[in-house]
Amino acid sequence: MRVIAAAAAVLIMVGVADARTWRVRPGPEAEQELQTALIEARPGDTVQLGRGRIELTSGLSLDVDRVTIRGEGHDETILSFSNQRRGAEGLLVTSNGVTLRDFAVENARGDGIKARDCQGITFRRVRAEWTNGPDSNNGAYGLYPVNCSDVLIVDSIARGASDAGIYVGQSRNIIVRNNLAEFNVAGIEIENSYNADVFGNTARFNTGGVLVFDLPDLPQMGGHSVRVFENTISGNNTANFAPAGNIVASVPAGTGVLIMANRDVHVFDNEIGENGTANVIVTSYRAEFQDARYNPLPRNIMIRDNRFGNAGFSPTGDIAALAQAGVPMPDVLWDGATLYSVGGTPRNEQVRIVVQDNRSTRTGTASFLSLGLTVAGSPYTEAAPDPTFPPLMALAEPERVEIDD
Amino acid sequence: MRALLFVAMFVLTTSAVAQSPQAVNTAAILAERPPQILAEYRFFRDAGARAPNARVTPYDLNTALYSDGALKFRYVYIPPGQTARYDAEGVFEFPVGTVLIKTFAFAADMRTPGENVRFLETRLLIRRTDGWIALPYVWNEAQTEARLSPIGADIPVSFTDENGAAVAFDWAVPNRNQCKGCHDRAGDLVPIGPSARNLNRSAYYAYAEPLPALHGMTAQGVWRNQLAEWIDRGLLDQAPADAPRVASAYDTVDTVEQRARAYLDVNCAHCHNPEGPAHTSGLDLRWSQHEPVQWGVLKRPVAAGRGSAGYEFAIEPGHPERSILLYRMESTDPGVMMPELGRQRVDARGVALIRAWIAEMDEGAN
User: Fold this and answer.
1) More exposed terminus of chain B, fewer Cβ within 10 Å: N or C?
2) CB < 8 Å to B154, chain A
């Protein structure tokens, strides 16, 4: 019987203001020590991870407020889940005000780091990676806050996720800044969320670089107010390796930015290029749904002042057939839908899509194409492509997101 | 089937005639620091925890959570002079000092589940003034003592299963956070099992004297409805004659749909409800949910990852072979399987039931 020993092996040091530091160093006892520290910690404590590789067989979890887990650097302190036998993620956080910094989570069987129902969660210089590169057997999400508020993800890295590297779902008040997301299906995804600033990031070599989605049948819907700016979003041509059935499995390889069924999304001042299908795609949610609360159309979308590199040189997915039929692939592609139906009842919507002042290294002025599908979910065979830019109009930019940093 | 019958019978062997020299240790129940040894609570009259003390009442459920096929022995202790308050929907409101006691065990040969029963752990859920706490006590090899193990344990087990096959795996005693992984309702730890609908069943209460050293069957006793028995024993304040009843998943008296919904309610809805850990999935597997898309029919996955298996819907009517829900029940891969914790084997009977239910659904239904 291998009853896990109590906390004896963990050093406890009294620190300032009664906060304690729990030190965990790599070694045969590290797994037990670490989970013990995460359970026994009191609010305000720090769990300090030593330099090296800590091997875990079971998912870790933290349910104590205001705890900091910190390592010596995301290349120096590695939580390795290559031999994980239990638990659906590497690390699960379910408490408020938690900071994760300077360590890596590698090869979790499910998600890398999940934070659920948290008020205040910070990922700083954290890395979540599947080290064998793109593989449909990799876990779904790398850094994964869901139903959280005040989410800060900065200077972090996500690689190899079979869904999204950095995935913020059903959350509010979000900053995703200066991160690197590469070799994931989706580099950075903001889904069913409100008020997000995504800036200064590099999203490259994914299937799709930056995704802003809203999906039906979820507790929080009606995603809105997302700013995507000053990012580098390039070379996102990795073949889609998501397990089929997942919504991102339908993302065509070669997508820079994809905005689906969301409102008040502003994409500006980005470098977006070398994406083989399109630099920016704006689309409705195309699958059937029953949820009467759901709006599948993108509305109030601003695409401005971006610098576009090459795009459309090897389109994939349903759009590829249009390209083969001679339709030129643009920098910005919109499906054209302004109508949708719920239970057979048609609804229409003022869909404002504004594309202005973007520059292209290929053509000088960026190109645009509407597929003219009119009704959300219409088959691409009914496309009536139209390169006419939609009318210019003023769209209010979402307010800057403020989080204590 | 024999295992189930056994559980139904033995659980109800009771201590109604017990004249314990020492009552349950109520101070231990409410102590700031819980006892390190299970016996200190005196829930049982013997060190091996086979003979319950006075007011420690065994109970059984219409449909129970699958836990790797382990036998489970359940008891409730409610302090003298107090009663649980009836609730038609959820778990009863239990008074401070209540303890729900559950022992997990395997028989050496599960085809003869009354013989050579080895206890693995006894989990306590204790109702304190500031809420419930969960405490796992792990049994020693000699079966003489169970010791508190708050951060969990792995216990190697091996036995012969119901089909005669040799099984060996590490039984996982959950740590405190993992307990909450299932017993979580909007951030608070709560019990799952003892609801009116799941307790509302007949049970066999034996009145043998002396009580057998080991849980065993006896001819001396009565079949009684558990709710009525709890009221008579002063454990429950009241219950209406038409209290709800959830189907028994493996008792073919009820329809396949009723049994399948009961199975999902007990095995999945503690997470998959609007206030549970899986609420962000939008999948609500409660017995009381009446919108098919909410319990999975033609519902697309959100964050299933590899768990989707390439299928489009949680439940595709008429097509169990393309239904994500069944696929995840059939997996033991930590990144795929459901539930995420508390199971390392596949519940073959549960899988067969859910498969039959999805197969019989009208393909055009929603």
Assistant:
1) N
2) 2, 4
Asked if B361 and B318 touch (Cβ cutoff 8 Å), the reply is: yes
Instruction: Establish if B340 touches chain A: CB-CB under 8 angstroms.
Output: yes
Residue B351 burial (10 A CB sphere; 0-12, 13-18, 19+): middle
Q: Which residue of B has its CA nearest to A63?
A: B177
B9: helix, coil or strand? helix
Cα–Cα dist B249/B256, whole Å: 8
Q: Note the ipTM here.
A: 0.85
Q: Which residue's entry shows tokens 């003592």?
A: B145
pLDDT, greater one: A404 or B238: B238
Say which residues have a Cβ less than 8 Å from residue B159's Cβ, sequence separation at least 6.
B106, B107, B108, B109, B110, B166, B167
Question: pLDDT tens, A205-238?
Answer: 999 999 999 999 999 999 999 999 999 999 999 9
Element spanning B255, H or E: none
Please count the residues of chain B. 366
The interface residues of chain B toward chain A in range 132-191, judged by CB-CB distance below 8 A, are: 138, 140-141, 147, 149-156, 172, 175-178, 180-181, 184, 187
Give residue-wise pLDDT tens across range B154-173.
999 999 999 999 999 999 99
Tokens of B34: 């819980």
End-to-end CA gap in chain B? 33
Tell whether B21 is within 8 A of chain A (Cβ).
no
Q: Which of A51, A47, A50, A26 is nearest to A37 (CA)?
A: A47
